[in-house]
Amino acid sequence: MKRKDYLIVALVPLALLLIPLIGQLTVDGWNWTFSDFVVAWVVLALTTLVFRFLVTRKPGNLAYRAGVGLAVAAGFLITWVTMAVQIIGDENPANALYAAVILTGLLGVVLARFEPAGMARAAFATAAVNFLVPVVAVIFWPADFSPGVEKVFGLNGVFVAMFVTAGLLLRLAAGSARPAGSA
Question: Is Transmembrane helix among the key words of this record (predicted)?
């Protein structure tokens, strides 16, 4: 990566963190600590790094870029929501399982060696693991679903749909990347 890439990875999150900084100064009840800003910067910087490396720097068609971008966005949103407010209740241990969702996606991408067909399989596997998180939570920790079971499954369904759509786009990209005459 070039020096410019590192600057983008470092500065884009700082620019985005101006939003909560302004909120901190102007909105009553908005109480971020210094460590909250550091953690938010790390999450945003890692997301920017992955996006920069996989979407903007790697050559690919529109389906590839859209698929990877959607998967990165879904991973970021799951991480952000889980860290900020928890998806499944305030104290439900199942929230920790969302780390397995992110790790499934990251491991799948590495094992696929960033090739669209393998990344499509990784996106589908990530969707499957994501789907299972609230199912496991209902079975093992049903007491703490503070936003409600329907709302948890609804939000989770949005993330599953994002990963499935990313997988379909990556499968499309893999199909268009095949040499002519191959099956």
Answer: yes
